[in-house]
Amino acid sequence: MSAPRPGPTDAYAMILEAIDLGTYRPGDRLVESELAERFGVSRTPIREALQRLETQSLLARDGRSLIVASLDHNQTAELYVVRGELEGLAARLAARHATVEEVRVLRDMVEADNDLRDDPAALARANRRFHKQIHLASHNRYLVQQLDLVHRSMALMATSSLAVEGRGHIAQAEHDKIVRMIEQRDEDGADEALRLHISVAFTTRLKQEAARREEEG
């Protein structure tokens, strides 16, 4: 018997992961036949996956073609507002409901991820795992669902704020504080620490955008 294929196996999950990892970036055109060949599936599930992604506004129409959608300044700001509120609530609930084992996993993640502070791509992947673990530790399925939607939209941002020099070290210190608050069962402290983490990430992203505009300018 052959070994199971690692990673997602359905067309929707595979395309979503490719967008999330930056294989397909905002503005890139997605072609059914090319995707089917790339992922080794027939065109029917690819077509259905593309329709689903378009419905979720992760893809947009460019004439007859589908392209990976992009977020303008206002959409990015709106997304960060919602993310801050929901992530803060997740941290608050994690401080209240997380099991001893879940808290230990969060602490282990922070310790392990410290080795990735100078590798933005690897740290970005680890960052997604860390936040997902907090979402799950909230033990609120409806909140987890909403945060999944938010994080899917985050994939439409062309660059990670973790790519800014020094941001990895700061972000890891912020993660450490979030986990400390959860360890101490400090609901207000966990909420505040995670909201601040999101606020600093947004500020960093705004500076990225300003620098990019100046370079293009």
Question: What is the CA-CA span between the terminal residues?
Answer: 58 Å
Instruction: Identify the quaternary structure here.
Output: single chain
Query: What is the structural class?
Result: mainly alpha
Shape, principal axes of CA atoms: globular
Query: What value does the Rg take, in angstroms?
Result: 18 Å
Mean pLDDT: 89
Low-confidence stretches: 1-8
Annotation field: number of helices: 9
Major sheet: size, sense and barrel closure?
3 strands, antiparallel
SSE succession: HEHHEEHHHHHH
Strand order of the largest sheet: 1-3-2
Q: Count the strands?
A: 3
Helix share bin: 55-70%
Strand content: under 5%
Task: Explain how this protein is built.
A 3-stranded antiparallel sheet has the order 1-3-2. It is mainly alpha-helical. Residues 1-8 have low confidence and may be disordered. A hairpin with a 2-residue loop joins strand 2 and strand 3. It is built from 9 helices and 3 strands. Helix 2 packs across helix 3 and helix 6 packs antiparallel against helix 7. 29% of the residues are buried.
Protein topology:
Elements: H1 11-20, E1 29-30, H2 32-39, H3 43-55, E2 59-62, E3 65-68, H4 73-97, H5 100-113, H6 120-137, H7 141-154, H8 167-183, H9 187-216
Task: Name its key features.
5% strand, disordered N terminus, single chain, 3-stranded antiparallel beta sheet, 217 residues, globular
Give the gist of this structure.
This protein has 217 residues and is mostly helical.
